[in-house]
Amino acid sequence: MRIDIITVLPQLLESPFAASIMQRAQDKGLAAIHVHNLRDYADNKHRNVDDYQYGGGAGMVMSVEPISKAIEKLKAERTYDEIIYMTPDGAVLDQAMCNQLSLKQNIIILCGHYKGVDQRIRDLYITKEISIGSYVLSGGELAAAIVVDAVVRLIPGVLNDETSALTDSFQDNLLAPPVYTRPPEFMGMKVPEVLLSGNPKDVAAWREAQAYERTKDRRPDLLED
Ligand code: ADE
Fold first, then answer.
1. Among positive and negative, which fits the CA dihedral 105, 112, 138, 37?
2. In 131-153, which positions are buried (b, 16+ CB within 10 angstroms) versus exposed (e)?
3. Is ligand 1 within 6 A of the CB of residue 132?
4. b/e per residue 162-191 (b: at least 16 CB within 10 A)
5. Is this prediction's pTM over 0.90?
6. What pLDDT digit, counting tens, does each position of 128-144 carry?
7. How far apart are CA 61 and CA 48, in angstroms?
8. Which structural domains are found in the chain, ordered by start?
9. Would you say the CB of residue 143 lies under 6 angstroms from ligand 1?
10. Bridge partners of 2?
């Protein structure tokens, strides 16, 4: 999978992909993440990529020309399955969306800033608008990093134990059950007996019941679907 990210702050996207699972996915050739500085596509002297909004009001708007140039250049090189715009007014990211995106070959992610991008960019190019939650960040970069992390770990071969993505929270509309490791007793608190029993059937039944209880308690909305 190839992911091209267009941003005015490429430095914000250096560390999230340079460690652990994201780095390993790239080392294995399973994900190629390319970060593009939008200012490289501005043809004015000061490399400005924003302007005052028509109609007045506080806040700058990201201009059409540099974004269009960046997207057109990428589109001339390959076909993209999705051109995503990170914005608080997009559809809220969930595991189903991540599962779908992990099946794509090439995607572009455009990070918004200031008051956002000129609407014509959204009308012309954007195929999907994603929010990571009902709050406003300073820009789309951290949101884009979250989308990339959540999607890339689902690409087959990225996780060592492929089944571990299948047992994540949300994969079956249930939160994950509690987990324990050694020691078997800490400050008088014991690991549930069933997990020490060595009986896989009992363990599976306990985990399923715990997952259901936890979901009912914390995220009853997931059970309504
Ligand atoms: N840009 C600013 N806030 C955002 C959010 N909540 N989700 C996605 N992109 C954003």
1. positive
2. bbeeeebebbbbbbbbbbbbbbb
3. yes
4. eeebeebbbeebbbebeeeeeeeeeeeeeb
5. yes
6. 999 999 999 999 999 99
7. 11
8. 2-152 (3.40.1280.10), 169-224 (1.10.1270.20)
9. yes
10. 32, 106
